[in-house]
Records
---
Amino acid sequence: MAGDLKQLLGQKPSSSALSEHISTLLSKATNPESVTPEVKSYSDAIYFNYYPLGLSILFKPVNGYKPRAGLKREDLQDDNLELEGIDIYNVRTPKEGANAARATKSSYTSYPISPIVLSLVPLPPDREGKTRADRISITLETTGKDFVLIMGEPDRKGGGAGPSSGSIGIWCEWAKDGIMVEFGGEESRGPQAWERGKDAMWKVISLFSPKKD
């Protein structure tokens, strides 16, 4: 089990902490094709996509740096980039049925470390005097119900509207914790998505710097 991923926020692409985490993932991966990420560069964002590791990392340019589109890894100015966001993927085989054939095949494999332990910010006790846990332990089978039970009601949520074949999955954001979760599977889409969503397993966990009131 690796340390809290949120501790990587603010790191440079070549930082030892990030390199150690990638090495840990590589040692756990089933088929690590390459540790070299696919780099997508834009003037306001750089993405490192580690498809075999179920991981995508977003860096923001700082100090006035404006990267060109199409840059390679060796062309980047590491000192002028800071890690701003992390996406972790949980790729599941679609259930057989009418929508299985239409399911989009992900380029990612599942993140190879389980459980994923993320820290939660301290909150005041609720009306019953109960305090929230200081961390959440997430497995590949963790459902919407599990997240809400431990983290409480999200600050924002959306998705799930429209026909199940064409809508996006439901998502929840806990802004104070810097955690957003998108859920997958048939339970996460369609008109009854929010009724069934409690049983939907997570598809993507996005980590960012906590938003303050």
---
Amino acid sequence: MGREAEYFSKDFDWEKLKQEVESNPSLSYHFQPFDSISPSLPSPSQDSQAWNQFHIRHSTGRFFKERRYLLKEFSELLSCDEYSKVLEVGCGNGSTALPILRGRDNITIYACDCSNEALEMANKMIEVSKVGSVAHRFHLFHCDFSTNGFPKWLACDSCQGNFLQKQHDQFPFVFASPNAEENKDTSLNNSSSLGERKCCAGGVDFVTLIFSLSAVPLHRMPSAIRECFSVLKPGGLLLFRDYGLYDMTMLRFEPDKRVGFREYMRSDGTRSYFFCADTVRDLFTGSGFNELELEYCCVKSTNRRTGKSMRRVWVHGKFQKPF
């Protein structure tokens, strides 16, 4: 428990880090306006291929550790109603899904990624985890939510229309779809079976965006967030955690790795954006969400091999779709 408490502590002040970084001339290139006259960025298919290669290189799964802090940071996943549904966007090797499945034995997770390699790794990770009764409540599917949107079996046009109508009317929302009783006992063994049903999954109660939005090009983020908004039930929560401005990994990027303002391309073709709280707020409230929590998580750790101190910055947020 002590290790978890230490992990969540505020080890340093973000504003002081900001002053220190911005007063360092050797780091000034990070904050200069970006020259828009630059080579064209990779296509979505090239982005997916880069992440495929990334997961092949890290096929042991050791690169991504199980996110044991998740249920402490997002306790709503433990206190939610029985049979709640979670959409995990950018599931990677399953390091986010696993603690949720461990923590609740009656929650259903729909997990997607743009990388087929990641989906295979997630499937293997869950299989060997020895978490009981996951076959009917863990469903993987391939999706790049920033370009293609989510499949209709997750929330069909009719259900999305009902969500909007209830919001506009400001009436209490009844989550069951018109076919709820008919579909109540239907087995949900995979996403393809959902596609054959008359309706759909009926939307989700939670969306998790855990270190995934930063991999999306900045100009595609608003439409990606609107997709998340569209499949959430009214009152549903979007749980967010991602790289923050002045994080150690941002400051390590060389000038030639910049592909936009606060946006970088790694040598392997994968990208990363570093968020400030104001940008996160604007992105989510601009898509219709209400802000519940938004803060920097500042953690100091030590590299065991070199003994060097590392200051990590993440942005933590909770956003709600209006009732």
---
Amino acid sequence: MHSRKHNPHKSKSHTMSAAVDSETKQLLPLHHEAAGKGAGDADQQPQPSSTPSRTKKIGAALFYAASSLSVIFANKIVLSTYKFPSVQTLALLQFTSTTLALKVASTLGYVNLLPISVRGVKSILPLSACYLLNILTGLSATQNLSLPMMVLLRRASILMTMLLEKWMLNSQPSKTVQLSVGLMLGGALVAALGDLSFNLVGYVVIFFNDLFTALNGVILKRTSEEYKKSKMTVLYLNSLLSAIGVSIIIVMVPGEMKRVQNFTLWSDSSFVVYLAFASLMGSVLNLAIFLCTSTNSALTTTVVGCLKNVLTSYIGMFVGGDYIFSWLNFLGINISIAGSLIYAQATFRG
């Protein structure tokens, strides 16, 4: 939301802006100020640039955490338990479900998507490219690492996000936040030293996933503030362009389409159900990430992702089947979790 001073010579643009800003209120009300602050009130008394309330910040963070927790286990089951061979195809299904969901919501009047223009596409291209790479590396890490180690090694994205926000958004985290991030990274280092199931491919992939996670969150925040356009249109364009990009990758990679066609479990109804769930939850997670980043910050989105991974880490020790226990690794996990809890308290306390 961005407040605008009333200008009688620009009433037409003010009306269009009010319609655009109200779109996500119809879809998900926690991203907006409480009802009662209508356009008429804004005309009578221009409001200063407001920040989301504490309730909305926590609501957006919890929505993201629940959505992410659901999709990560669905992805793990599809890629590891059923050994589905193509992360690109799974990503394509998730991008497509997001694009179609927003288009249907627009047709039904719940979302007002702005007309697609060449300028709009150009402005979203960096975000879409980064987002696509983020999803692909994340799914690949899910294939190659146990859940406890995957979520632990993602802690490095927090430091990357913090540095990028300071450079690109001129954001300065508090001393408490900096100390909590240091604690999380220290715990991740200890756990990595005690990792008995070391996988070089998984470690390399998760490093790039950390980088793209940080870049995606910061670029998303910057795009929302710079262009001041419909947030749902940004998400729609992002998903659409990412779907086109991953489709090109699928066609260009030798043997990719054949591996998917020859997959032996297409007749297994349980696999199809999990694949459909993972695909649909992808659209929900995309919306949750967008709302959490816009309502809070890219750093908050990253750390909330680590907080929900507390549960993922502990469950993954017993359910994933590919985690090898060691006391040093277990100690590092708990140190990192302590840092996450300290950061969460510092973030939402005020």
